[in-house]
Amino acid sequence: MQLSGVGVSPGRVAGPRVVVVADLREPDASAVSGDLEAEAGKIGPAAESVAAALSDRARSVSGDARSVLETTAVMAADPALVASAERLVRDRSLPAPRAVWEAAGEFMTALQAAGGYLTERAADVADVRDRIVAALSGLAPPGVPELTSPSVLVARDLAPADTAGLDPDLVLALVTEEGGPTSHTAILARALGIPAVVACSGVLGLAGPGLVVDGSAGTVSPSDGRVVAPARTARPVWDGVGRLADGHRVKLLANVGSASDARAAAAAEGIGLFRTEFCYLSATSEPTESAQRTAYAAVLAPFGGKPVVVRTLDAGSDKPLAFLEMGAEPNPALGVRGLRVAFDRPDVLDRQLSAIAAAAADTGVELSVMAPMVATAAEAAWFASRARAAGIARVGVMIEIPAAALCAADILAEVDFVSLGTNDLAQYVFAADRQLGAVAALNDPHQPALLRLVGMVAEAGAAAGKPVGVCGEAAADPALAPVLVGLGVTSLSMNAVALAGVGAALRAVDLAACRALA
Ligand code: PEP
Ligand code: MG
């Protein structure tokens, strides 16, 4: 049986299947009618088995990973947590998993109330809680399992926090039931250069020990679990300078979210999008200005003397940040996200802007900043004045809301450049959630509606004499890059692995051919 989804990162591999377990559901609280002592007696052994498994894993790794696992093992075996959960079983007849859930919840509330370093530990207690609850319920612990051999990862969807730190030598391919071509699973797979299929309905139910994944055709079928992974094809050769066959310059820049991304992208002409929120996906409190300065400098360091565009925090929707949580919303993609969070918390924006300016000075980069999710010229002006007050000379905004594309000329009057976020722009133009498999086919940057908006923005840029870049995934498509250039786009920013392919594709065409394609 073969399933079809949307292929988002090319290549064909086969290997054993490892399922990423989604978040645990809150355990049932209905009262236990049987022996309460026997129910309470399950908690200690479950906690010990979790602690033992974590200690085993700690012994097999070194460095920071080892100390994190050792500390988590100690927490799992904490007699205070076990005793408090046992008490809840005896006093309130709660089932053991529910008792652990509530006891851990009390610990987490106390840690969060204590503030500072202890707030961060609440996330560790939640991890221990989930592991003990899973052990008591006979389930695998949630999250990406520790891989020890090359495997195909299968999930309903993967959040950026799940995928940070995935090892491309152990992940043969990614397959998700949800997600679209611009979901973070897709972006990550392309960044790691591993095959991926998203929007593959039914893959979690597919029988068999393994899977064959064809990221070019978008198909997935069962296999005997043997690893078949052809050597990765040689990348096209590119000399590191973005230009067409006739010499017309198009800067080719990198999208980065971490210091390791930046090191991998050092051949790029600069950074076109630094997703700063990726530094803080698991932070539970706002990082201090000096911690931000250090973190940003670590990312910018390989780019001394080169242009970099740092985007201020794009929190919310597909990239939630715990310390900027805006509460439940019926439509998070249409809610308080990106720059909108800063309207409520301008102090957070101001601290970030001054940390970015300091990190740029520390590393000698040629700094620009830009804001995500800008809807109007007034919002662009608001951001620009705060960025300039922080001493930042070059200020831009992302164009990823259709209203902003339609009013690009007004926005360009307020800022020095714009960068098209085609991932979100497609989501809003086609009214198709970028995380939802069922509408993935609509999120196609080759669609004329999206390209017409790109053309309008590029025209406004040319009239204003200001640069118009593309930093969404459309820029990483070698077939689309010449079209974007033909529409008038002046720079393209993409994950490091895509640079050579796009660079080589541009070398094969001149500006007249790009315009004809557009
Ligand atoms: C975009 O929306 O195209 C973009 C580049 O930003 P992100 O993918 O981080 O939302
Ligand atoms: Mg976006």
Instruction: Tell me the helix content.
Output: 40-55%
Superfamily (CATH H level) name of the largest domain: Phosphoenolpyruvate-binding domains
- Small-molecule binders: phosphoenolpyruvate, magnesium ion
Q: How many H/I helical runs? A: 20
Instruction: Give me the CATH architecture of the largest domain, please.
Output: Alpha-Beta Barrel
Mean pLDDT: 91
Indicate the overall shape.
Answer: globular
**Share in β-strands:** 5-15%
Q: Supply the helix-strand structural class.
A: alpha/beta
Number of strands: 16
> Into how many domains do the coordinates divide?
3
Order of strands, widest sheet: 1-8-7-3-4-5-6-2
Please report the distance between the alpha carbons of the first and last residues.
Answer: 40 Å
Radius of gyration: 24 Å
Ranges where pLDDT stays below 50 over 5 or more residues in a row are: none
Describe this protein's structure.
The protein has 20 helices and 16 strands. The chain has an 8-stranded mixed beta sheet with strand order 1-8-7-3-4-5-6-2, with helices on one face. Helices cover 42% and strands 15% of the residues. Helix 3 (63-76) packs across helix 6 (117-137). A hairpin with a 4-residue loop joins strand 7 and strand 8 (219-223). It has 518 residues and is α/β, with parallel strands linked by helices.
